[in-house]
Amino acid sequence: MKTRVCRLHAKGDIRIEEIEIGEPGPGEVLVAMGAGGICGSDLHYYQDGGFGPIRVREPIILGHEVAGTVRAVGEGVEQVAIGDRVAVNPSRPCNACRYCREGLQQHCLAMRFFGSALRYPHEQGGFRDLMIVSDFQCEKIANPEVSLGEAACAEPLAVCLHALNRAIQVAGALQGISVLVTGAGPIGALTVAALRHAGVGQIVVTDLQDAALAVARAMGADVTINMTHEPERLDAYGADKGTFDMVFECSAAGPAIRGAVNAIRPQGTLVEVGVAGDVTVPLNLLVGKEIAFVGTHRFVGEYAQAVGLIDRRQIDVRPIITGSVDLADAVEAFKVAADRTQCTKMQLTMR
Question: 147-165: per-residue pLDDT in tens?
Answer without folding.
Answer: 999 999 999 999 999 999 9
